[in-house]
Amino acid sequence: MVVPLSGAVRPGVPAPAPARVAAEAPLAERYAAHRANAEEAARLAHAAGAERRARAVRELAAPDRHFLEFDARGPGRTAEVLGDLHTADRVAILVPGSDTGIDTYPRFLRGALALHERLGPRVAVIAWLGYATPGTVSPAALTPGRADTAAAELRSFLHRLTTYGVPARTPVALLCHSYGSVVCARAAHGLGTPTAGTRVTDIVLYGSPGTGFDHAAELRTRARVWAGRGAHDWIAEVPHVRVELFGTTLGFGPDPVTAAFGARRFDAGDGGHPDQLAALRSGDIPLSTAVEELLRYDSPLHLFERWVLEDIEVGGVRIPRGSEVALLFGSANRDPEAFADPDRLDLSRTDNPHVSLGGGIHYCLGAPLARLELAASYGQLVRRAPGLRLSTEPRWKDGLVIRGLRELVVEV
Ligand code: HEM
């Protein structure tokens, strides 16, 4: 098995111990202490030459950031509040899945911001990065071990919420994504009972690889259990099996969106990356960077051919002179050895050596023009169609070489 590409884990970058804040300290004091701690973490990372980490934590020290908890050591543990915890009618806690850490935090935050925007000011959103998430392509992502520790952390965070001033009567929903759904399922036991302190009313599992349980009832929670998945979620393609291998359990069992699991099912949309669109609209991501990622993620030309002029060997395969070979650009653009988490659309991706415009002496002659046209048209589209959304599932042409749309029906 291949071991992680996790951008999340950066061992060895020095960081201060978390700020000590009295349990009952006012929120403003708590937030200020964690910002100062983030500032100190940025200074230490910079001094150690870890510039990427320094930049990432410096952003977290900005005056408008509100961390209930903050620890920059290792992959990082944080709980950030969007909105007002004291006056909110409801609280939604986002529990992330694999490959989330301080270094990849902006992606997680964008999801939380998009959710907060959608739910409005009466709902406070907490982006809870309270556990060491596994790398997507790692054994840890297929085994529940890490989720057990994480579930304990989540439960203890839920207990602390009342000391942070969240009224015990405020309904709290857990929104648990991918591996986060395994964590929530393990934390669910007893949540939602009147004696459990924080009032968890709903547990929402989406993009789940399975929860480790065969039925929602096994979660033994009084909270409502929801399950959803976008139409194009790759998790749907993962076989939902659970096997015992070498004394450890691999996989998480049935998909919670199946009727047999017994959760309340909802449509999680088309998997249309609303957080990415929101980030593009907000101007956080340069259009030129987004264009490169869109070229990579959905390669317009999937295949080109070459004739082999002399015997060669590629990846242990001998290709004799005179052969015709097909180069699969679409596949190369999802190569896990070249791209971190290749199946994820990340418009802020800067390390992006895609081959959508070819390579070598036949490199696309029109590349600069194509890039200009794409940036100009996407720029106009997001500016002039703020309500743009899909009406129906896009339909693609069948061709093997050119990946193009047959039909794209949208509302503006
Ligand atoms: C998103 C838009 C575009 C994509 C994805 C694209 C993709 C490619 C690719 C993959 C190749 C390499 C083919 C190979 O390896 O044999 C190529 C070559 C080429 N492209 Fe593009 N292209 C685009 C736009 C354009 C535009 C706008 C023009 C002209 C104005 C253009 C003109 C050419 C030419 C002339 C070549 C052949 C270069 C050579 O063989 O030396 N392309 N393109």
TrEMBL record:
SUPFAM superfamilies: alpha/beta-Hydrolases, Cytochrome P450
Organism encoding this protein: Streptomyces solicavernae
Cross-referenced InterPro entries: AB_hydrolase_fold, Cyt_P450, Cyt_P450_B, Cyt_P450_sf, DUF1023
Gene3D superfamilies: alpha/beta hydrolase, Cytochrome P450
Family: Belongs to the cytochrome P450 family.
Domain DUF1023: 71-242
Name assigned to this protein: Cytochrome P450
Pfam families: Abhydrolase_8 (PF06259), p450 (PF00067)
